[in-house]
Hints:
Elements: H1 25-28, H2 40-45, E1 48-50, H3 53-66, H4 73-79, E2 98-103, E3 109-116, H5 120-128, E4 144-150, E5 155-161, H6 175-194, E6 197-198, E7 207-209, E8 215-217, E9 224-225, H7 244-247, H8 254-273, H9 278-284, H10 298-310, H11 314-317
Helix pairs in contact: 3-4, 6-8, 6-10, 9-10
Amino acid sequence: xxxxxxxxxxxxxxxPSSSDSSFDEDEVNRRxxxxxxxxxxxxxxxxxxxxxxxxVKEFYKCQSESHTSHDPGLGYLTAFESLDDDALxxxxxxxxxxxxxxxxxxxARVMIKAVHxxxxxxxxxxxxxxxxxxxxxxxxxxPVLDLIEVxxxxxxxxxxxxxxxQLITDTPCCLRLFLxxxxxxxxxxxxxxxxxxxxxxxxxRNLLTDYKGHYAYIDxxxxxxxxxxxxxxxxxxxxxxIPPECERGEATDPYKVDVWALAVLILRACKxxxxxxxxxxxxxxxxxxxxxxxxxxxxxxxxxxxxxxSTLAENRLRLTCPNAH
Length: 325
């Protein structure tokens, strides 16, 4: 796992479980919209600064200086001309529970997400982001720098490294690196399932990269822990990639929902990059079985994937990405 963890994570007190009967399950797991200015100082005291109008002006100034005069940054600069430079400036392209910022001590870019203190998402992220799980090489969650609890408001701010959603960079990618990225996706699903966690929203849009060969899952809003449950089931699933049994309104095995979604992720990644690997298509086929009980476990998928890759000739692994720029 790519690690860049804050020391504050180790000393956090135990949070109440989202399964506590005194809390409304729907309410605590609903996406929240914090009043960001009210928490600005709290975040600053923990070493993080939210983006301001000045930051955005500087960003677009650099963009316009490094590109042509037609760069859209010039328009933004004009639009911000009359605004207070110190005012917070949310990214209009992000959900209201997300805010961009920087770590004060070194200027590293961060993404801050606000979730309910008793949400399933916080329960899962906190588990995956503290020792010993955070140090497990199979754990491919995005590095969390801090978890800041505001108990009076029932809010937690999850401070993460800022990674990119761009699956393929400007540098040409070869098949070996593409398969390495897919393996991280499969391996993390195995890691979660072995700890009785179903992600329940595996998709390309929830996959980020640091441009250094590391890939990570994000967005655990729908994730659930099934500790102590032998045969868990889920009803009314509403994730990005919906398997046929959920389309029919049936209850299903949450782990097999992840298997289906992982197969779709692989297919979409192949389409996006331009790779077509017959061996990979054969691997995916049983993962898309109409009947969830006949889909393999993600552990079996990982084992089959490793076996498949071991049979590929070196000249095939060196093939460059057809859709690389």
